[in-house]
Amino acid sequence: MRLVLFDIDGTLVNSMGAGKAALEYAMVSVYGETGPIASFDFHGRTDPAIVRGLLRAVEWPDDEIEAGFESTWEAYLAALDRELVERGGQVRPISGVNELLGVLEGDERFAPGLVTGNMEGGARRKLGAAGLAGRFGYGAYGSDSERRGDLPPIARERAQRRYDRSFDMGMAVVVGDTPEDIRCARANGARALAVSTGRHSVEELREHGPDAVFEDLSDTFRVVRMLADE
Known about the structure:
alpha/beta, Rossmann fold, DNA polymerase, domain 1, 10 helices, 8 strands, 45% helix
């Protein structure tokens, strides 16, 4: 059995900008400003790293940034609830996701989980809004570590408790839509499956050396073959 570790935003779900809008509201509420949020690249970063990067850009010291974290996440989750409700049925799984998860859940070779920069509460809200609640029995989140590269070992530890067995990170596959997902996989000795369902093209992702690149996850047969290393 191998770990299949999915990113959320741009890989599983398009939340239609709900997360960014909620974070902007929360940062204004707590810090009084957002830094260069309109031009800042959110993709592949953890939520804490995004807040830190935005405020460092306008010369906030780290201790003051960290002092506001707890209040920021409380305000963010409340705002995210509102933003997701406003978007109603617009928040949906990305093409091929439901079909792929259905196959993985029924195949004892795979243990699908999450490695995402979202705070755990944000991850659950976005998945719920897209109809994917309960599809992942373990994961690691931005609330576990600000460093994305720290997350796969945390996910592995939780998977080992859930399945009562050990997992080899060398057999794990990280699935994501950014170069950061590929780097995260490589830093942990895992394989990387990249999808161009976010802002990066197939060609851009291929430059970072993933084991495979797909336009999306809709070709279930080909994706499963790659995940199984066939």
